[in-house]
Amino acid sequence: MQGFPGSTRFDDLELSLSPALTMLAGVLQFLTVLPTVVVFIIWFHRVRSNGGAFRPDVFTLGRGWAIGAWFVPVANLFLPHRIARQTWRASTQLGPDGADRTAPASLLTSWWVVWVLAAITGRVFSKIYMAAETVDALLSAGLLGIAADLVTVIAAILAVLFVRRLTAMQNTMATEGPYARV
Predict the structure, then answer these.
(1) In this predicted structure, what is the pLDDT of residue 1?
(2) 155: which residues sit within 8 A by CB, 6+ positions away?
(3) Which of 25, 102, 106, 170 could serve as a FRET partner for 4 with CA atoms 20 to 30 Å apart?
C-alpha cells in the first residue's frame, strides 16, 4: 500500500492499471462516438436539404452549413442549433388555410442545451484530468468524467428523440403535403 498527499490510499497494482484503463475507456468511447457523429451529420445535412425543398424561405444559411457549422470553433456552439431550428420550422406543416404554424421545439432546445453542457463538461474534465498530479486530483477528475459521460448519455437519448421527431415531421410533409388537415 502506498500513501499520497490527501487521505486516499491505493496499492501499486491499482496505480499502474489506472492510466491504461482510462486510455482503454477513451479509445472505446471514441470508436463508438466517431461513427455516430458521421451518421448524425449526414442525417442533419439530409433533413436540412429536405427542409430547403419544403420551405426555402425559412433558411438564412446554405445547405453546406449543416455540415460545416459543426467544425467551426465557437460557432459550433450555436450555428447547428440555428440550422436545426430553421429545419424544424421548415418541416412543420402550415395550417389548412396556409397560415404559419409553430410546432413546440422544446425537444430540440432540450437536446441542444444538454449537448452543449456535455461538450463543455467533457472539455473541462479533459483539462483537469491532464493537469492532475495527485491521486486525489485524479479521483476528482474521474468524478467529473463520470458526470460528463452521464450528461453525454442524456444528450444522446435526447438526440435520438429529436432525430425521430424531425424525421417524422418530414415524412408527414412528404406524404401529406405542406398543409395540415386540421
Answers:
(1) 44
(2) 111, 114, 115, 117, 118
(3) 25
